Amino acid sequence: MKQVRWNPSPEPERSGYERLAVITAGSPILDQTPVNDSAHHLWLGIHLPFLALESLDECSAQGPFAVFEQHRQGQQIVVANQLARKSGILEGMSLTAARTLNPDLFSLCRNRSLEHRRLRQLATTAGQWTPRITLLEDGLLLDISGSTRLFGGMTQLIEQIHAWIRTESIDPCVSLMPTAASALLCARTGKASRITAKECIPSVVRSLPAAHLITDAQSHRLLVQLGARTIGDLIRLPRDGLARRFGPDLLVRIDRLLGRLPDPQAVFKPALQFKKSCALDAEITDIEFLYPAIRYLLEKLSAYLSVQQVMLERLQWRFTGERGARYRLPVHLAKPRGDIDELERLSRLALEGLKISDPIVNLELCAHRFTPRIPAHKTLFDQTTWGDAHDDSLVERLQTRLGKHAVHGIQSQVDHRPENAWRRCRPGEAGPVSGDRKRPLWLLPSPKAIHISKGCLTIGTQILRLDHHCERICSGWWDHQPIRRDYYRASSGSIQAWIFRDLDSGHWRLHGIF
Amino acid sequence: MNLDACLQRQDIWRGKKALPADSAVATGFAALDNCLPGKGWPRGALTEILVENIKRSPLWLILPALSRVLNSRPWQAWIAPPALPYPPGLTHNGLDVSKIIIIEPENQADILWSAEQSLRSNACSAVIFWSDHLKAAPMRRLQLAAESGNTLGICFQGDEALRHHSLATLRIRCKETASGLKIDLLKCRGGPLCQNISIAPDSSTSDALTTFS
Questions:
Q1: In which domain, by residue range, is B186 found?
Q2: 20 to 30 A Cα–Cα from B203, which one of A21, A261, A330, B157?
C-alpha cells in the first residue's frame, strides 16, 4: 500500500477564533456547513471499543467482566474485559456459553443511556480542542481543521488528544481522515491512519470489508454473489450498475466516504453545567476554615469557564452537614463574571451570613447559568474617577450580603392610582418619566386613618388644615382595585401632608408627606 | 492699610484652614448656605441631621443637594428609608430616580455595613441613611469611609441622639415650625455654630387656608 505522508498544515488560516465564534453564536444542533471545494476538513475519528464496559460504574471490577445485550434469541455478549477474553469469551457469544467458559464471569446488561452520558462527558472535555464534535454510537468525531494552528500544529494536537483519550479509555483507536465517513470507518476497523488529502482516501479504505458500507442482509448476500469483498472492489464497479442493484443510497455513501459529496454532521453542543464537590477532611464549624476549599473549587470553575469561553451569571454553594443538614447559598452577580478573585470575595461575603449548627463535611459548587464571554473593552485613558468595576460591584456586594430583595431601584409607572404609580425595579433601570403633577416625596405604605374631632381633621394630637384641593382620582375599575378619591394638601405645623377623602366611604386618610 | 488689605497679604496666615473649592455641595437654601463653612453640605464627610420624628424626615431639605450631585457618580444610596420615597414626587423635584438604589437592611448592623460600603465605594454620589443612635466607633468608621470615598454622607437620626457626643463633621438639629424648619448647628467643623436658621420649603404654599368644618 502506498505510504501516505503528512501534508503539513494544508489550511493554516482557520485559527482558534473559529472556536470562539461557534461557541458564542450558540451553534445550532445541525451545523450545515456549506461545503465548497476549498473547505477542507480534518476529521479525527475516535472509536472506543470498551465503551459499554467503561460507562458502567463496575468497570473497575477486578475479575472477568462482560456486558451483554438482550436479543430475541437470548442474551449476547457485547463486550468483555481482558480477563474474560483470556478465558475465551468473545463478543457475540451467548451469555450462557460465556458462563460455561468461565463460571466466575460477572455480567451486566448494557445501558445505552449511561454510554451516551459517558460520551457526552468525553465530548465536553474534547471541547477544549475543537467545537465541532459529533457523538457517535461508539465513539466521537472531531473536526480539528480549525484548531491545528492554535495547538501548535496537527501533530501536537493529535498527540494531545491521543494522550488524553488513552487515559480515559482502553484501547481507543484514533484515526485522522479528510472525511467524516472515512474517519469513522477507519477508527471502527482499528486502522490508525493519518491522512489529510482526499485523494489518498481510496488507498486506505479499499482494503476494508465492503460490509461496512452495506448493512441490510439482502444486499449483503448480493454483495457476496458479486464477489465484491472490499470497498476497493465496490469503488471499481460501474456506478450505474451499483445504483441499480443496491439503490442510490450506496453511491451517496461511497461519495461521502471519498469526499465527493458534502457530509454535514450534527454538532454536539455541550449543556453548560458546572458541579463539583469537595469532601472536607474534618468537620468544619468555623466558616474561615472553608476558604481554602472554596478557593480550590473556584479555581476549577475558572478553568471550566475559560475552556467553555463563558462567564458566570449565578453560582450556588451547597453545604452538607454531618447530621445531614443542607445549606444552600446562592451568590447573585449583578453582571456576568469570570474573574475568580471577585467571585471569591462575593462568596465570602455571602458566607458571612451563614449560621452553621451542624458541622460541615461536604462542600459543593454548582453553576448552570452562563453567558458567552465578551472580551472586555477598556479605554486607553481612564477618564472617570470611578471605573466600570465600581459600577455594579457595589450593588453586587450589597445584594450578596443582604439578599437580592433588599437592594432595589424604584421607578415611576404610568397609572393614576398613587399606589400603582411606582414600582420596584432592578437598580439602574429607568422607568417612564412622570413629573407633571405635584406629588409627595414620601408615600405611606398604607394610608393612615384621620379622625374628625370637633370639626377638625386630626391625626394623633395634631390638627390638619386643608390647604387646597388637588385633584380627584377615579380609576382602576378594570383590574378590581378601583379607587374614587379626592386628594387635598393639608398642613400641620411644618408638615405638608397629602390626604384624601374616599368618595365611597367618606373616610379621610393620610397618604403622603411632602 | 486697612484690615481687609492686610488679610489679603500672602504672608498673613489665618487659623481657619481655607476649604478647597469642591469641598461642599450647596444646600439650595441661601440662609443655610451662608452659615455653613463651605457654603453647603460638606462633601467627603458625614452630616448628621437630627429630627423630631424620623418618620417625617424633611426630604426637601436635602433634595436640592442630592439632585445637584446626582450625575457625578453612577448611584445614590438610600439606606433604610422610614417610608417609601415616592418616585413621582422625586421626579417632580428634579431627581432622576433611576440612579437611586434603595437598600433595606434588616438590622442596625447591616445598615451600618451598607452605609460604609456605599460611602467607601466611590460609586455613590450621596449616601443617605436613617438609623438609630450611632455609637462613637461606628460613627467614626462612617466618617472615615465618607472621607476615603469623597462621598456626601447624610444620616437622619432621632432627637434622642442629642444626649450623645458626635464625631460627624456637621451635626444639625431641625425643629418644625409653622412655616418650615428652624435649624440649629450643633457641631460644625471649621465654622461658627449658628442657631435658629429659618428655612421654608420652596414649594410651601400658605394661601387658601381653610379649616374643615
A1: 24-210
A2: B157
